[in-house]
Amino acid sequence: MRDPHDFVEYSGLTLAQWEKALPFLTEAETLFVRYGFKKTTIEDICRAVGASKRTFYELFDNKIDIAMKLALHVISHMTNSRDDEIARTESAAEAFCLRLMLISKSVVNIRISRFYLRIPIY
Q1: What is the DSSP string of 58-104?
Q2: Torsion angle of the four alpha carbons 92, 96, 99, 104, in this order, in degrees rounded to the nearest 10
Q3: How far is CA 53 from the centre of its chain?
Q4: This prediction's pTM
Q5: What are 76-119's pLDDT values in tens digits?
Q6: What share of the chain is helix, strand, coil (3-state, %, to 5)?
Q7: Which of 19, 75, 99, 112 has its CB 3.0 to 4.6 Å from that of 106, i.e. a possible disulfide?
């Protein structure tokens, strides 16, 4: 099974930064679900984490950046949870197609949930 933090490679964060960012991602997800993307502020996220805005900006460019990293984390988690199934495929092409299908489903789920979370997709 792959490292659960594989998405770090694509997020632009180091592993140390990822570990620091995890509480921000967790609290941001909770706040986005509860209040929506538009109404949730960076200050709300920082207050929930108990950290400063300076720490936030060391990890994320802005609110859209944290939302995108959160989406990336969700996609990574969804595909990692199916690694055993992917490992049983008979060829690299089949494994690639299965992984692509899982990512596509994740993106569709994120696009659907954006209406619930009110997150703009650019």
Answers
A1: HH-SSHHHHHHHHHHHHHHHHHHTTHHHHHT-SSHHHHHHHHHHHHH
A2: -170
A3: 20
A4: 0.66
A5: 766 666 677 777 777 878 777 777 777 666 665 555 455 445 55
A6: 75, 0, 25
A7: 75
